[in-house]
Write a structure and sequence with these properties.
It is built from 10 helices and 19 strands. With 316 residues, the protein is an alpha/beta fold. It is elongated. The structure holds cytidine-5'-triphosphate. The site of cytidine-5'-triphosphate has 14 residues, from helix 8 and strand 14.
């Protein structure tokens, strides 16, 4: 559905769901992608209320056909002129070209931390929030892929409803879910921060501190999910992983790429400002198995996910 022109009145009704005409009734019932082309006088366009409403529509997943500067219906000149019809045509057709690019492909993504239980009230975890993996899952879904997301103990907020989510808690559960799901996938991007060790013994009663000054925990290695998929991967399957490093980054990432039998690896360095856990931005270098390296600037995690998915798409 293309709403052009989307006046400030229409945008406000779309944002609030105020259904007092046929257009808004049709809009509220539509199950298809929604494009809207803002068109209004310049002061209205600048008003924070209009910007908030436009942001809301984007949050709903609608696609803005951006207004430009030029002559307006009032005779004034400024921002708020509706996107030209030929530009609307191009933007909409590009959208569908891109959004169908991965139709028919099933792709596994994992994201988030794992929690390794010590006793009923304690666990060992890490700072991952799953933002990067969730952004990748959304970008893949936007391009028409069937996305299987195996997600550690973080919320599902902001995920496209098209994504099939399997929630897990521990590294062992992550391993089992990914093993099962990857068999039927064309590709996998493993972004989760999986614990490398888990307590050897789980205490089903809370460990009391008693008179002890120390607590020694024995830890056992967890399965390496990515390496196990690398081992079993079929000729047609594409597999990518992440490497989070603090030093000698390229060298370590290269070793992981080879050892885990990956097609490419996405390197994050904890030394880069703007990269790391719980941030909204990331800075990555991608290393391909043929040795090609792609270095990117610091970008939002959404934009980074587009860079990663673009490369994956070449492989598929
Ligand atoms: N990974 C995994 N299973 C594990 C550990 C890591 O699948 N038990 C995956 C991560 O999802 C990531 C890649 O392996 O895609 C690299 O993870 P990273 O933490 O950078 O390195 P490790 O392989 O754990 O090695 P090290 O901790 O020694 O750097």
């Amino acid at each position: 559905m293309i709403i052009a022109p989307a006046t400030s009145n229409t945008i406000s009704k779309m944002a609030t769901g105020r259904c007092d005409n046929l257009l808004i009734a049709t809009y509220l019932s539509a199950n298809c992608p929604i494009f809207f082309a803002p068109a209004m006088d310049l002061d209205m366009y600048k008003h924070p209320s209009t910007s908030n409403n436009i942001s809301k529509l984007i949050e709903f997943g609608h696609i803005e056909l951006p207004a430009s500067a030029g002559e307006l219906a009032s005779g004034l000149v400024g921002m708020g002129r509706m996107c030209e019809p030929e530009d609307i045509f191009e933007l909409v057709s590009n959208h569908f070209e891109v959004s169908n690019a991965l139709t028919g492909k099933t792709i596994l993504v994992n994201a988030g931390p794992t929690h390794e239980k010590i006793d009923p009230v304690r666990f060992i975890g890490n700072h991952s929030t799953g933002k990067m993996g969730k952004a990748i899952a959304n970008t893949l879904a936007d391009r028409g892929a069937n996305v299987e997301l195996v997600l550690g103990p973080v919320d599902t907020h902001g995920l496209s409803p098209k994504i099939n989510v399997t929630k897990i808690t521990s590294a062992q559960e992550m391993y089992e879910a990914c093993q099962t799901i990857f068999k039927n996938c064309d590709a996998g991007i493993l972004a989760a921060a999986v614990a490398d060790f888990t307590p050897t013994n789980y205490s089903n009663k809370k460990i009391k501190k008693g008179q002890n000054d120390n607590l020694q925990l024995s830890m056992t290695r967890t399965p390496d999910v990515l390496a196990s998929l690398g081992k079993s991967k079929k000729e047609h399957q594409v597999l990518a992983g992440f490497a989070l490093e603090t030093h000698d980054e390229i060298n370590h990432a290269q070793k992981k790429l080879d050892k885990k039998n990956l097609d490419f690896i996405v390197l994050n360095s904890m030394n880069d400002v703007g990269a790391g856990f719980a941030k909204d931005t990331n800075k990555i270098t991608i290393i391909e198995k043929n040795g090609k390296k792609h270095t990117f600037d610091t970008k939002s995690k959404k934009e980074v996910s587009v860079d990663i998915v673009n490369l994956l798409q070449n492989y598929l």
